[in-house]
Design brief:
The complex is a heterodimer of chains A (about 120) and B (about 110). In chain A, about 0% of the residues lie in helices and about 55% in strands. In chain A, strands 2, 4, 5, 6, 9, 10 and 11 form a 7-stranded mixed sheet that branches. Chain A has a 4-stranded antiparallel sheet with strand order 1-3-8-7, with no helix packed on it. In chain A, strand 7 and strand 8 form a beta hairpin. With about 110 residues, chain B is mainly β. In chain B, the strands form 2 sheets. In chain B, strands 1, 3, 4, 7, 8 and 9 form a 6-stranded mixed sheet that branches. In chain B, strands 2-6-5 form a 3-stranded antiparallel sheet, with no helix packed on it. Classes of the chains: A mainly beta (about 120), B mainly beta (about 110). At the A-B interface, strand 5 and strand 10 of A face strand 7 and strand 8 of B.
Chain lengths: ~120, ~110
């Protein structure tokens, strides 16, 4: 049974860089894609990006210029960095495992507990 | 504005049946990409409810079912229970955005 646990700073000032990490316990790390998804308060889900075990990434075009997702295979961890944050980036950020069997077929079957990140001066 | 369109809210009495629609376009659902559904009770992380249009993960009651036709998909919940009160999201792939997209979410209220 896979467990996904995440952590990172919860309060940022505008223009700072958001940094979150997710650790995976149990199950295979290399057989899946690892994702970040966010949810602004009271709103819906937005996919941020994904990474595989070899470091291949795919990002949401609307965030691509500010997002970096990296992986540390030795620790079964992956991380999110989002630069130049503004109040619009205030959200609960989730990490999630993606079961991807084609370039265009994927769903998220295990989710982290979520981290509320607030951007405020 | 979400790429996949869901009704903001639906409601039903205990024991009743409700459906939640998810309407897309030719660049996502209509292109043949699978639709998946998630349940998110208040204050919790989303949970996978239906994958591959109509498949239930282990542990999900058979009161939940999914279907897909053309550019739309639907989630049906029969025998409504108070514990079903949650937000529900559909998800698929969009070829125009080259990424995974979600519906705006539907809040289910059990009366």
């Amino acid at each position: 049974q896979v467990q996904v646990q995440q952590w990172g700073a919860g309060l940022l000032k505008p223009s700072e860089t958001l940094s979150l990490t997710c650790a995976v316990y149990g199950g295979s790390f290399s057989d899946y894609y690892w994702n970040w998804i966010r949810q602004p308060p009271g709103k819906g889900l937005e996919w941020i990006g994904e990474i595989n075990h070899s470091g291949g990434t795919n990002y949401n075009p609307s965030l691509k210029s500010r997002v970096t997702i990296s992986v540390d295979m030795s620790k079964n961890q992956f991380s999110l960095k989002l630069s130049s944050v503004t109040a619009a980036d205030t959200a609960v950020y989730y990490c999630a495992r993606g079961l991807r069997w084609l370039q265009t077929q994927n769903y998220f079957d295990s989710w982290g507990q979520g981290t509320l990140v607030t951007v405020s001066s | 504005q979400s790429v996949l369109t869901q009704p903001p809210s639906v409601s039903g009495a205990p024991g009743q049946r409700v459906t939640i629609s998810c309407t897309g376009s030719s660049s996502n659902i209509g292109a043949g990409y699978d639709v998946h559904w998630y349940q998110q009770p208040p204050g919790t992380a989303p949970k996978l409810l239906i994958y591959g249009n109509s498949n239930r993960p282990s542990g999900v009651p058979d009161r939940f079912s999914g279907s897909k036709s053309g550019t739309s998909a639907s989630l049906a919940i029969t025998g409504l229970q108070a514990e079903d009160e949650a937000d529900y999201y559909c998800q698929s792939y969009d070829s125009s955005l080259n990424g995974w997209v979600f519906g705006g979410g539907t809040k289910l209220t059990v009366l």
